[in-house]
């Protein structure tokens, strides 16, 4: 163990903390972290081992993106209480960053799954798949709801759910099973957003207080689903639904709940003729 009284050269001290010695020189120049002594003969900076804890605190704060000016203010009034407050603020910010990264990873995995589907599956086939339960935030629409209003509502939900962008989540439309049986294939009643991380809180527009996510959710049930894909403009989707009804009848299956429609390739196409809509409907 290095004795507390022993002074280290700037190079030794920098190496011990895994930083460039120019960083120490800069910290000295701005008055953030001074050396323990300066050799009067050659001007070389020397540091005490006892200064390590202070430097590590500064380096930790910098790694948390605390500004130099904030650290300077803290250093001028350094205390257990002030460090506790500063760390609490940064822990909260770090938790938010971690949550965003988890959500971003889930979104990337969803995109990857869609690309895998496009490259490996026969999209002309109708099949039965097993799906896990998922929680969706929904907004109600009618046949009279304009496209502009739909965009406005889904954007508002995106903000309330603390998503940075709409494409941070999967989104689509919901069509009641009874509308499918009735031949009303365009009578969508809801728009949905799948929140990547349903464990966090949703904030209402009226208050900054979080509300339980369960109260804001539509739960898409786990179980067996008919899965089909439609390629082309939305106006041609009724043809695919007729195929689905024929498939369900042949398999002695009953549609229930909602059909969940979602575009899966809009980020890699330029023509609506190439647009692929994934259709999933729970069956019993």
From TrEMBL:
Annotated coiled-coil segments of the chain: none
**What's in the keyword line of the UniProt record?**
DNA-binding
Q: Does the keyword Plastid apply?
A: no
Molecular function terms, GO-annotated: DNA binding; DNA-binding transcription factor activity
The record places domain HTH merR-type at 7-77
Q: What domain of life does the native source organism fall in?
A: Bacteria
Task: Quote the protein name from its UniProt record.
Answer: MerR family transcriptional regulator
State the organism named in the record: Schaedlerella arabinosiphila
